[in-house]
Each structure stands twice: as C-alpha cells, then as structure tokens.
Design a protein that fits this description.
β11 and β12 form a beta hairpin. The strands form four sheets. The protein has a six-stranded parallel sheet with strand order 1-4-5-8-9-10. Strands 11-12-13-15-14 form a five-stranded antiparallel sheet, covered by helices on one side. By secondary structure, it is an alpha/beta fold. α6 packs parallel to α8. The chain has nine helices and 15 strands.
Length: 357
C-alpha cells in the first residue's frame, strides 16, 4: 500500500536534499504479537531483516502487570495500553533491540527524527536513551503525551495548569530530548471556537493558556491528528472553524503541525488558507518562542499581536473598535475566513513600494 523499501529510501533522500527530513512514527510502548502462547498473543519476531539484535521475544518482553497479555517482565513504568501488549522497557535486552531497530531506520532508511507514540506508557528517561543512541536531541523529536484536561461535567475548566505541568514534567524527564504535542492548546482552542468563549485564550498571567504559554519552543501545536479527527473522530476540532484554528497556531509561538487530511483532502479553500498562513509565518519570521501581546480575549473576540509584525483576530464580532490594525501604520490584510482575519505589517510588496517612493 505504501510502496517498497527502495522507494522509501529514495523519497527520504530526496526530502533531505531539499533541506527537510523525514520523521518516523515510532510505536514502541506496545506491539501486537505475531504468535500465540497458551491462547494469548505474546510472542514476537522481526518483520524486517536488519543488522544488530533481532526481535525474537516471548512473554518476558511484556510487562509483568499487563492485565491481558500474560507478560512475565518488570512492572510497567507508565500507563497501560489495553489493546496490545505493553513492552517492558525496564529490560536492557529489549531496549538494546529497540535501539538497534531505530539505528536501522536512521542509518539504512534515512529517517532523522522520531514521533513517539503513547509516551505516557513508559518512563520519560527511556525516551532520552533512545534519542541519544540515534538521531540526538538537536533533531526534531516529538512525543504524543495525551494529557487529560480538567473538566466540570461537560464544561472545560478555565485553568489547565495541571495538564501543562504534566507535559513540562515529561519534557524535563526526557532531558529535553523530545518536544511534546500541545494537547492543552488544542483542547482550549476548540472549546473557544465552538462556544464563542475566546476569553479562554488568555491565562491568568496574560499568556496563551496551553503549553505554548509556558514552554513554547518545546510545544508542537496541532488542530487534529489521526486519532482526534480523520476516521476515528475521538476528539475532533469543529469542522466549520478549522481555518480559524490554523489562523491561531500558524501565527502563535510553538511549532505548528499541519494535518495531512486538512491540507490535501478537505478542499481547495482550506488548502489555500493553510498555505497562505504558513507563508505569513515564514515571511514574518515567527518562530517557536516569538513574543505574543494579547490585546483582547473576550467572549466573541480574540486579538493578539505576534512579533510586532502579525496581528490575528478570532471570533464572530465584526466591530473591533480601535483594535483594527491601521493601514496608515503599514498593516495589510494577509488572510481571512470564517471568524478570523490576519494582518501583517509592512509585508514585502508594501515595503518595496514604499522604498521605491
């Protein structure tokens, strides 16, 4: 379905030549077994031949307290993953085999970064070990630590500091070798756009309320992924406000991540919106730790200035009063859509015209 090994190697080489690099989705908290022992799926073998330690494991490779798959290994160092056997990362032999496999993906295939699945399932220190043994912490690595937000029934609590702190603790635990998907920002932002509650987008200290407000250069922002949206729909962003969602993450600090479905399968309008917003970010030098000045965070209106050269407005309110960026000051509309507008100050075309005059 996805092509051959040779085609993958060729693709990654072409990506590298263009100043980019491939990030592999690494699922090592759990693994579906290949064979059964005593009626339970708990025996593993290698799917792909490679140099180094082979994956020829029995139930010793599964955590001893896995409630389903009859493991005999050490106790789990993180949360249990119910649908598949949890691997025993406390076992040195297993860790060495995983590192050899990752080195194969790096050196033989050409991947240069890792997207680590369900990292709340094993201790953060192992993440540092795997990254340090392969691509290194200077490359882009990101972990899927799906934090539980605080709710009061069906209402999201205003303060999500506990969720932010859990992500910070995990990042510190992996020795800053791996960034984290900013689940708090996703959850807060989608509640804000869904219910016209844009007051949520400013925390008690006047900062963005997700991980980007505390540790922006370690926060990977996103609107949806294969779990929250797509065919699974576990926690989807409101479909009629996806453009506004991208207007927020593309103009704000953090490391924004574009969902394949949104860019390639949701139609030309959203495709153009995301492409335009990405160009605005790049053109204005917005980076992970760019400064944000929140000018308004009310029920139906959010306005923020980022890096002194970009302003974004979210919400249904049309009348912004004195918060409308003035054209006389060099501001020009760069992107707009349902419940959002983005301005940039002295964009290249305007600046060039002024210089010529």
């Amino acid at each position: 379905k996805y092509g051959s090994k040779e085609e993958l190697v060729e693709l990654l080489a072409a990506i590298n030549e263009r100043g980019m690099y491939g990030v592999a989705d690494i699922v090592i908290n759990h693994r579906c077994a290949d064979e059964m022992t005593d009626g339970v799926w708990n025996k593993f073998r290698d799917d792909v031949s490679h140099d180094g330690l082979k994956i020829d494991w029995g139930k010793w490779a599964i955590t001893g307290n896995d409630p389903v798959f009859g493991g005999s290994g050490n106790p789990d160092t993180g949360d249990d993953y119910g649908p598949a056997p949890d691997l025993d990362h406390a076992n040195p032999e297993l860790r060495e085999a995983l590192k050899h496999w990752l080195q194969y993906l790096q050196n033989d295939i050409g991947f240069k970064g890792w997207r680590l699945d369900f990292v709340r399932g094993y201790a953060a220190g192992f993440v540092d070990e795997y990254v340090s043994a392969t691509v290194g912490k200077d490359m882009f690595n990101v972990g899927e630590y799906w934090t539980d937000l605080a709710w009061n029934g069906s209402d999201l609590d205003y303060c999500q500091d506990a969720a932010r702190q859990r992500l910070c603790d995990w990042i510190n635990g992996n020795n800053k070798s791996c960034t984290a998907f900013d689940f708090p920002t996703k959850g807060i932002l989608q509640e804000a756009v869904k219910h016209q509650q844009y007051w949520r987008l400013k925390d008690k200290d006047g900062k963005p309320p997700g991980l980007i407000g505390w540790w922006p250069n370690r926060a990977v922002t996103f609107i949806d992924n294969h779990d929250t949206g797509s065919t699974q729909q576990h926690w989807p962003f409101p479909s009629d406000r996806v453009g506004a969602g991208y207007a927020y993450i593309m103009t704000h600090p953090g490391i924004p991540c574009v969902f394949w479905d949104h860019y390639f399968t949701w139609g030309e309008e959203l495709h153009k919106t995301i492409k335009t917003l990405a160009a605005v970010r790049r053109r204005n030098g917005i980076i992970a730790d760019s400064k944000v000045k929140i000018l308004a965070a009310e029920a139906d209106l959010y306005v923020a200035e980022i890096g002194g050269s970009v302003t974004v407005k979210l919400g249904s309110r049309y009348d912004m009063g004195g918060l409308v960026p003035a054209e006389a000051d060099g501001w020009k509309v760069a992107a707009w859509g349902k419940d959002f507008c983005v301005w940039e100050k002295n964009p290249p075309a305007v600046a060039a015209k002024a210089a010529a005059a």
